[in-house]
Design goal:
Elements lengths: L1 H20 L19 E6 L4 E6 L4 E2 L5 H12 L6 E3 L2 H4 L13 E3 H10 L3 H12 L2 H14 L20 E2 H12 L2 H8 L2 E4 L8 E4 L12 E10 L2 E10 L2 E10 L1 H18 L3 E4 L8 E2 L7 E2 L1 E3 L3 E3 L9 E7 L12 E9 L2 E10 L16 H69 L20
Antiparallel strand pairs: 1-2, 1-11, 3-6, 4-5, 7-8, 9-10, 10-11, 12-16, 13-14, 15-19, 17-18, 18-19
């Protein structure tokens, strides 16, 4: 019995010790859950939520190498409006070593051609020529690069050249370069170049036609989500990359520094897979989802059914689906005729009150033109209804007027008959009076014509004589 108690006590003690050694779950992501990268410095940033998803030595300084050209490209675009401007390649630009687009001294090329040569072929010669075109001389351009870094709050960044040559004073951090990359890609022209997979350049006065292809890993892989970027390379043991991911409306920007050539692509995949799992997204609008009816000017029915033509996702910073709202916005002018599938507006999707993404909406059936009143948004049925109503009202008015006229005629007849009866009665009365007058006159005449004896008193004289 005593032995059993002792064993029980020992078991309970061991279990309690094991329990206290386990970490309490707080809902946070443990380091073990984060991807392990060969890259020494890295950041992954979500453009949708404005949050860092992953950081590793984010503020430590490393060589950016040819990623430097992202900053060069931005300054070129901001300072040269016309990319058709021609540049004559200097002896210095043509002689720059390292990666090249094989420019020749005296070769005449455009700013656009140099931009693609710099970003797709990572041409150091192109970068140098662009720096000269913007700054006039290289020292001035380098000052512009460092001034830009300071303006963006990049305290762990300094440049000594415009193309990424290794140097003690040429460095950046993952967080700093993320800021500079996001700024550069906010320029639509720079973004277009960074997103280009292939560019054909016609022959020049010194060279045959060139074909340029991107070196950015994953950008040519279908459905990878990588849409733009720039790499940096010094040797197989020291390279870098910056890419933009855009898939299912989730946009992320990644910077990795001091990676190996063998592991760089795998590190990119690890980070992107991690980011897609960490950021909570929701299908805010689905393709084919019915939307509001749209008023169509000059159409037979005036209103037409619509539906979303694209599935879009929203990624609220809070991670709560309740923080996603939508708003239907129709085009200012929607007029018939329309074919099924014609776009007539958009559904705006907001995440945490900020516009996140839009989905086009289109009519789901053909919309024929209507009659003339449809220009005033009156449908054909409405027009028929109006005509019928007008005719009905006109008929009622006509009938009412006819009835009133009949009543007036009847009343007039009644008045005429009454007047006629009165006139007849008056005539009868006048006739009676005339007859009476005639009789009276006749009696008077008869009275006057009686014998004289009947007028006197006889012998005795007057009738009352002798009474005295």
């Amino acid at each position: 019995m005593r032995l059993t108690r002792v064993l029980t006590l020992i078991i309970m003690t061991v279990m309690l010790a094991c329990t206290t050694m386990l970490p309490a779950f707080t809902g946070a992501v443990y380091a073990a859950d984060k991807p392990k990268l060969e890259a020494t410095g890295a950041v992954l940033y979500c453009e949708n939520t404005g949050q860092y998803i992953y950081e590793k030595n984010a503020d430590k300084e490393y060589d950016p190498y040819s990623m430097t050209k992202v900053v060069t490209a931005y300054l070129v675009s901001q300072n040269i409006e016309d990319w058709d401007t021609e540049v004559t390649i200097s002896e210095k630009a043509a002689s720059i070593g390292g990666s090249s687009m094989d420019l020749q001294e005296g070769e005449v090329v455009t700013i656009e051609q140099l931009m693609y040569g710099m970003m797709l072929l990572s041409g150091n010669d192109a970068a140098y020529a662009l720096g000269e075109a913007v700054g006039g001389d290289m020292d001035t351009f380098i000052d512009m690069m460092n001034a830009l870094a300071m303006e963006q709050g990049c305290s762990h960044t300094h440049f000594t050249n415009c193309y990424g040559w290794q140097g003690d004073q040429h460095y950046t951090s993952a967080r700093d370069f993320l800021k500079l990359s996001r700024l550069a890609m906010s320029d639509k022209r720079v973004y277009k170049v960074m997103a280009t997979k292939k560019y054909k350049m016609p022959a020049t006065n010194k060279s045959e036609a060139r074909t340029m292809k991107t070196h950015v890993p994953l950008i040519t892989v279908e459905d990878s989500g990588v849409v733009a970027g720039k790499t940096g390379y010094w040797d197989d043991w020291d390279c870098s990359a910056m890419v933009r991911y855009d898939k299912n409306d989730l946009r992320m920007t990644m910077v990795i520094l001091k990676d190996t050539d063998a592991d760089r692509k795998d590190d990119m995949l690890k980070l992107l897979n991690y980011g897609t799992k960490e950021v909570k997204g929701y299908a805010a609008v689905t393709e084919g989802e019915a939307s509001k009816t749209v008023r169509v000017r000059h159409s037979a029915n005036i209103k037409a059914p619509t539906a979303a033509t694209k599935t879009v996702y929203a990624y609220p910073a809070t991670g709560n689906e309740e923080d996603i709202t939508t708003k239907v916005v129709f085009n200012e002018k929607v007029e018939a005729p329309l074919a099924a599938g014609d776009e007539v507006g958009r559904i705006e999707v907001y995440a945490n009150g900020e516009l996140a993404v839009t989905s086009p909406i289109a009519v789901t059936e053909d919309v024929a033109t209507g009659w003339l009143p449809s220009y005033l948004y009156i449908s054909n049925k409405g027009t028929v209804a109006i005509i019928v109503t007008v005719l009905l009202i006109a008929t009622l008015i006509f009938i009412r007027r006819r009835l009133r006229a009949a009543r007036r005629r009847k009343k007039a007849r009644q008045i005429a008959e009454r007047e006629l009866r009165i006139e007849r009665r008056a005539a009868e009365l006048r006739a009676q009076m005339a007859a009476e007058q005639a009789k009276t006159a006749e009696r008077k005449t008869q009275f006057l014509n009686q014998p004289s004896s009947r007028k006197g008193g006889g012998k005795g004289g007057a009738p009352n004589a002798g009474q005295k």
